[in-house]
Each structure stands twice: as C-alpha cells, then as structure tokens.
Amino acid sequence: MTAAAVAASGAFGRPCRPTLPGQDDFTGPVAHAADYRSPVPFAGRRVVVVGAGNPAVQIAAELAQVTR
C-alpha cells in the first residue's frame, strides 16, 4: 500500500480529480499535479502517481529520487 498519492490528470487550470475505489478509506495525503511544488514532503514515503501525461512523468521522476 502507498503512503501518499499524487493525481496528475487534467489541466492545471481545471484539475481533474478522479474518484477511485477505496479513496474514502485512504488516510494518506492526496495531491494534484496543480498543487505539487516539491518532492520534499514525500521524502522517504511510498507514493503512487496516477496519470500518463507530461506532469505525471516529470513528478514521478522527481519523486523517484526521494521516495521508497
């Protein structure tokens, strides 16, 4: 299981925040790419990035340097 989630789907001006099964039971932080500023808050954690566009790939690359 992951400790945090980053949704990287939709345009920054109008983020798409999908509803996922089990989302209400998840107790970790959930952030959208539009809210992402730095990998620092996710350091040492297990993180999943949801999305396939450029922001998702760029964020995943940054997070891979500091997460488990």
What does this structure look like?
The chain has 68 residues and is an alpha/beta fold. The protein has one domain (1-9, 30-68). It is built from one helix and three strands. The chain has one helix at residues 54-64, and strands at 4-7, 30-32, 47-50. It has a three-stranded parallel β-sheet with strand order 2-1-3, covered by helices on one side.
Task: Provide a quick synopsis of the model.
With 68 residues, the chain is an alpha/beta fold.
Q: Please mark out the parts with pLDDT under 50 across 5 or more consecutive residues, or reply none.
A: none
Q: Give the N-to-C terminal Cα separation.
A: 12 Å
Overall mean confidence score, pLDDT: 85
Number of domains: 1
Question: How can the largest sheet be summarized?
Answer: 3 strands, parallel
Give the helix/strand class. alpha/beta
Element-by-element helix/strand order = EEEH
Estimated share of beta-strand residues = 15-25%
What order do the strands of the largest sheet run in, or round the barrel if closed? Answer: 2-1-3
Question: Which structural traits does this protein have?
Answer:
single chain, about 70 residues, alpha/beta, three-stranded parallel β-sheet
